[in-house]
Fold this sequence. Notes:
The chain has helices spanning 2-17, 24-32, 59-71, 85-90, 105-110, 153-158, 170-178, 189-198, 227-243, 245-252, 259-272; strands spanning 34-40, 48-49, 56-57, 74-80, 96-98, 112-113, 119-128, 143-147, 163-167, 184-188, 205-206, 213-218, 221-222.
Amino acid sequence: MKKLQQLGIALALGLAFGTAMADATLDKIKSRGVVNVGVVLGGAPYGQIDPKTQQPVGFNIDFSKLLAQRLGVKLEAVTVTPANRVQFLQTGKVDLLIANMQWTQERSEILSFVPTQYDESGGAAIAHKGSGIRKWEDLRGKQVCASQGSNFIKPLIEEYGAQIKALPSMPEALLALKGGACVASVHISTGIHTLLEEEPAWKDYEAPIASELIPSPGVIWVRKGEADTQAALDKIVKELHGSGVLIETMKKNRLAVPQAVVKLQEKFKTAAK
């Protein structure tokens, strides 16, 4: 977190002084009247397809709508997966990512991010009841499913000695778990707990490890060096914190509100006075 704060300060200074040339993305968004946002629809509460309307719903969608409204444009939500989301951003298929993609040092070296975080979450393991797994160390030498590109893969291998079976997305990793391809599947904590609480098909499974794996800030990602886009989005995220709209949106989607987000609401509410 300290490293993220330092990077955030550096970014803020960079945004304040501007760049020699304005980045093209913000101008393109304004001129076409549409912002293309890459979103992950891996399951509630972050994103899924409503079976009644066949429309995408969830926090990722609602948060994207808030950004679009405040930019004064329409939203085009583009479905991405953990395996292809970075490629979609780098090749211009999307303008930004709200895709369950927490900040990491490695990601910040190839992409830029909005300095003010909008969420904070870590990983949770889901396993069959009676698996004997009770702590992260119990995964050593065992086959563990995860989404390709997940920031949980590195600590699972390097710190806990797990053998990773990487699948394109969370639904595919969970299907592999049910099929016996792995003893546990590790994904964003809120998604796992929502699955266990709301889906009867998972009644024989549990999240046996009490602690979250590497809790990290959730940030909006943009292409490297897009200072104007960063600045515009950072201003919006701060306003959403200070007005309380972000927490309201989290609660609407049954998303646990992290203490970091509570503190940011207080910070920016105070700053607005």
